[in-house]
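I would love for you to help me understand the pair of lines that follows before we discuss the fold together.
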Amino acid sequence: MSFLHKARVFLWGQKPATKLEQRLLLKIDCVVMTFCTLLFLSNYLNRANFSNAYLTGMKEDLNFKGKQFNQVNSIFTAGYIIGLWPNNLILQIVPPRWWLPFCGAMWGILSACLAATKTPEQVMAIRFLQALFESSTFTGCHWILGSWYKEEELGKRSGIFSTFAQMGSLWSGVMQGRISQTMNGRLGLKSYQWLFIIDFALAMPIAIFGFLSFPDTPRKTKAWFLSEEERQLAVARLPQHKPTKMSWDLLKRVFGRWHIYLFSLLFGFGSMLESAGINSVMGFWFKSLNFSKDKINYYPLSLISIAIFTTMLAAYMTDYVGSRWWVNPLMGVIVCVSSIMLLVWDIPYSAKFFAFAIQGAGYMGQATNFAWANIVCAEDEQERAMVLAGMNVLSNIVNSWWNFVFWPATSAPRYTNGWISMFPLSVFATAVALAIVYLERKDRRKKLSWTGPGDEEGRSDGEVVNELTEKRVTEEDDASSNEEKGTKA
């Protein structure tokens, strides 16, 4: 195998066996991946831009007092948590091609409404409604990706999708700076009002694109851009499982298995390794050094850049080696090394900068753990939706108190308790990951002992797609042979 071929396999996976599957995968990437990533970008920009708006005039114009800004954020978090499970269950009933674009359009419209608010109470009401709709995106899109992609394709796509949150953070600050310079006062609107209007203007075309093109799930798709043969292949190329339905036994299917407990614990507490980024601790360090506003805004982007790089590297590596658990201990080791350096504190400026920046590695498990849950729960569509939402539910619940306990602003810039908390978190995430590996292998052995290596018809999961692939390869070879004969004649 040549170096170029190995590089190609690492970067984008094995080349599909037939031109039909190549064309199908290209269409899925162009539509499903594009819509999901753009929707998530709009979602995250909306959240990041609200904080920027508060700091650039909304606080004074709407006369925020005391802890009202914290109350807005708490209300948003509550709405987000409340909406997670219902949204993923709605996707089992309402076609995703309608529900996800509808949610995107609604938070865009509500963003425009924020530009017209006059009181903090109005902001609280709108942000609660926005949270209900925005909670559809992260876990809902991970569920969609798990519905369309093979196991060896899923990690890198999940990584690309997840990094758009970090890209949203990068773009939000730049966007606010440009709007403040060029739009403040235009048409009688402040720069923060323009920020909300631009959020609306970005959300609506993405929603329209979804309404026109998003293809639902492989078994239900009637997408205009897929041929009948491509629709059949979209189902056949995935592992074959008996279809599951929304029914009264869903709670038993979900809570009677280990999946929701361990994957929720893994992400619920493992995501707290992102705390340095969530709490903008690098910015507080630069502020304590009396750096300029530009440096305080731009230097912490190094942490976000490391988050993007490590997330993508882990996503590609897990697809390449076919294993995902190891990302959790690796993430923990990097974060703990950084935490030791920051606990020592009295180290050279360059070393401290490096230590803060590599805290971005705390994000690297996000995409791979959601891809892992998608794969483990693949046999039950509704359980998979509940598990993915449950992971995000526990993460938001833990985050709602974790930062107050371990990362209060009063402990800036040293955050001693925060760095200490990284050690038990890393050990816990590794232990849960190993428990999942053990139980996953145990379930596979049990399944094999019950059914043998094939299904009830004596065929392995991959034979359906293999049959279609072999047929297609034969047809393409015959066509090529006929073309050669015609050329010689």
